[in-house]
Amino acid sequence: MSEINPDEAVARARRAKAFGRRSAAARTGLHLPSFPELLRLQPFCRENLQVDAAQFSERIMARLKPNSATSDLTRDALNALSVSPGIEDCLDAAIALRFSAEGDRRNQNSWEEGARRCEYYAAMRGDRASMWKIAGYAVDLAYDPKTPDDEAIVYGTAAIGWMLTATGKVEDWPMHWTPMHVRAHAMGHKMIDRFVEERARQVTESDKDREKAQPDSFGSKLLAMKGTLSEDLDKDDEEAVESTTGKIVVLKSVGNGEVSDGKRVAADFKSILNVLLPLVEVSKLSQVRLALEDEFPYARLIIDVILNDLSRTKYVEMRPTIFVGPPGGGKTSFARCLLDLLQVPYEVYNCGGIGDASLAGTARRWSTGEPSLPLSLMRRHLCASPGVILDEVEKAGTSRTNGALTDALLGLLEPTSAEVWHDPYIQSAVDMSHVVWIGTANSMDGIPAPLRDRCRRLVFPTPGPEHLVPLANNILRTLLDERGLNPLWAFPFDVIELDALRSAWPGGSIRKLQQLVDAVLKVRDKFNSTH
């Protein structure tokens, strides 16, 4: 083994001393560690992940551009991250930061490092996909020629440890009380020790000349190990998928089933009573993305956030989400299109002026008694995961005389209570935990705080003039289809028509653009009828 020259020894000591000073400052809250420093086991700010996430979010939000849809969505994601950095919040923030990088090429590396930091938070929370990514980032840093050797070995250790952690083998590690990243490094050290011992044995037993001619580097072992662990991880995932049937029983019994009224209800719900109902499988997300981007070219960030949720599951599962934006921006149309593409049966529930809790069902003792809307959808479509679009949810009435819609939604949107939600018409527990809830609102002001806390808020962008051509063409096809004409025979808008649309529509409401396109078509029809 070659000896370290004196200059290199001094440099290593200097780096170690500086790292120690920054670690001490991080513990007291005077230093926010960088992502590479976190990978080398520098403590979080005040040794607390949530404090670290809050400090990080505050610094990033100060650099966001004002009056930008992308910045608004990034700011919302970072706000959620600072309050409660759960796995979904961390991953949403990572996606938002990468979109911010597209509009700020000068600081692109900083935004990317911020996104990786958010994925590090997610890995700390137990997200296996993020653990794999962190291992990959550590490998990149380990093999970067600019990385000193003493730091490279730490990154290599982190890479191996996070790979092992991603496979689930961390459960076999005895130190369950230690933080995730400390366990990962400990496992990495243990594996490297095995490498060193095996390497020494091979060198002793093999021919030295052959060893020099064909060195078996640590890097090749690391890459080989990565391939092996990838296969193990894929195998584990496949076994997990195979163990899932994709069907659940949502209704196991009907209350008071021995009386005539109960027997009638049981007969009405015979098709789903104690019957395994299928969950909607995730469609090919690449095709879903293309279709959504074609119809909503201005909503790419929203599309990525939603599809990121779906990419981690075999069946359609989404956190309750509210799209917030000005009227006419296409929020409800986007929600409809999304569920159509995912093949999720759904119903749009107009919340404007609703002054009762009828969506959650009414007691069967009343002549107007009826089951909850989600349960009705399950029976109608024989599906355990239908969707409900709550349109203009901020306009729901607040009177509690007949129950309030916003109050009724609280139990339905909370995962734990939704699993055994009591339907007043059925008079029994129903599993509502797989229902897809999407809300639309012009503002969050009219939505009670308990309901806001249960939903993810996504600022829906407003289309600009640069989106006029694809949007106008989409509207043209839709209008022709409504008239019973084949859109393939439609003449595209000419230069004069497009100039007229641009002069009247500077961006904003799609409803306004629909009216303008309809007016252009009427002028076109009138011109054609006179020639």
Q: Nutshell version of this structure?
A:
With 531 residues, this protein is α/β, with parallel strands linked by helices. The chain is 55% helix and 7% strand. It is globular and about 90 Å long.
How do the strands and helices of this protein lay out in sequence?
Elements: H1 6-27, H2 35-39, H3 49-61, H4 69-83, H5 87-102, H6 108-124, H7 128-143, H8 149-166, H9 180-205, H10 208-213, H11 218-242, E1 247-249, H12 260-268, E2 276-278, H13 285-295, H14 300-310, E3 321-324, H15 331-341, E4 346-350, H16 373-381, E5 387-391, H17 405-413, H18 415-419, E6 421-423, E7 428-430, E8 436-441, H19 449-453, E9 456-459, H20 468-482, H21 495-504, H22 510-529
Parallel strand pairs: 3-8, 3-9, 4-5, 5-8
Antiparallel strand pairs: 1-2, 6-7
Helix pairs in contact: 3-4, 4-5, 5-6, 5-14, 6-7, 7-8, 8-9, 8-11, 13-14, 20-22
Structural write-up:
The protein is globular, with a radius of gyration of 29 Å. Helix 16 links the parallel strand 4 and strand 5. With 531 residues, the protein is an alpha/beta fold. Helix content is 55%, strand content 7%. It contains 22 helices and nine strands. The protein folds into three domains: 224 residues, no CATH class; 211 residues, P-loop containing nucleotide triphosphate hydrolases (Rossmann fold); 65 residues, no CATH class. Helix 5 runs antiparallel to helix 14 and helix 13 packs antiparallel against helix 14.
